TrEMBL record:
Protein name: GTPase Era
Originating gene: era
Statement: the UniProt record of this protein carries the keyword RNA-binding: yes
Domain (Era-type G): residue spans on this chain: 4-173
Pfam families: KH_2, MMR_HSR1
Source organism of this protein record: Roseovarius gahaiensis
Length: 302
């Protein structure tokens, strides 16, 4: 039996569908944009099995034009993940085409991807006509030497199996890197924090999520089998605290309920979740907050 294993980096602009694709590949919801710093390889997000191949996905933060320290650290983490991978998959949204952001990624890929295979996955194909897809594929392949192009819908699962089979075949021969039943290489405290942060992101204005972080302050496994989880949502300003709490605390209640329900499903047991919101004006400049998110504080310089 010939086994294969390797690291696959999913890169692209924010909202290109990387997390949706990862969750579909792995067959379970892993989390949103957690990046665990590891001294070796990269930020592991999920593990999938395909035949005798083990696909270890490195889901990177969305690549965008960084403006502040946190942005720069996230972008550095993304390119770090790509540079450490065996195969890189660039996701491009079919209906948005070659944006300025995609142009920048293609330029950087030319430097980072030397000697690595890079595949193109055009996502959200259900949003455009086939002639638009063919034109976009031709345009992107003229700009970069992709080894393979896939047309997919990460949300609906179209084309995902073909991509997974191709990746399984292309990975280097070698022993598996993780136990077969392991979905993700993330401590549960981080997964819990990410679930809550995702619910906040879904509920709040687009800009605010970059100004907040969630940390799991305590986790207690109780005798009755349930888990008591206390989390703190850190925000940069008083005004942000009000937004998160909402009128009569409605927003934080609904976020807490949604996060609790998802965690119960994920853990398969009852969860008691308690959220607190704290204002820390300089959290974006505190190295500990970056460590909690799995980012390197030093990458935010420049």
């Amino acid at each position: 039996m010939t086994t294969r294993a390797g690291f696959i980096a999913l890169i692209g602009e924010p909202n290109a569908g990387k997390s949706t694709l990862l969750n579909h590949m792995v067959g379970a919801k892993v989390s949103i944009v957690t990046h665990k710093v590891q001294t070796t390889r990269a930020r592991v997000r999920g593990v999938a099995m395909e035949g005798e191949s083990q696909l270890v996905f490195v889901d990177t933060p969305g690549l965008f034009q960084p403006r502040r320290r946190l942005d720069r650290a996230m972008v550095a983490a993304a390119w770090g993940g790509a540079a450490d991978a065996d195969i890189i998959v660039l996701l491009v949204e079919a209906h948005r085409g070659v944006t300025e952001g995609v142009e920048r990624i293609l330029e950087q890929l030319a430097e980072v991807a030397t000697g690595r295979r890079v595949a193109l996955a055009i996502n959200k194909i259900d949003r455009v006509k086939s002639e638009v897809l063919l034109g976009l594929s031709a345009k992107l392949n003229a700009r970069f030497n992709f080894v393979e192009t896939f047309m997919i819908s990460a949300e609906k699962g179209h084309g995902v199996a073909d991509l997974r089979k191709w990746l399984a075949k292309e990975l280097p021969e070698g022993p598996w890197l993780y136990p077969e039943d392991q979905i993700a290489d993330l401590p549960m405290r981080m997964i819990a924090a990410e679930v809550t942060r995702e619910k906040l992101t879904l509920r709040l204005h687009q800009e605010l999520p970059y100004q907040l972080t969630v940390e799991t302050e305590s986790w207690e496994d109780r005798k009755d089998g349930s888990a008591r989880i206390e989390q703190i949502v850190y925000v940069a300003r008083d005004g942000h605290k009000g937004i998160i709490l909402g009128k009569h605390g409605e927003t934080i209640k609904s976020v807490s309920k949604a996060a609790r329900e998802e965690l119960q499903e994920f853990l398969g047991r009852k969860v008691h979740l308690f959220l607190q919101v704290k204002v820390r004006p300089n959290w974006l400049d505190e190295s500990e907050r970056y460590s909690e998110m799995g980012l390197d504080f030093r990458d935010g310089n420049g």
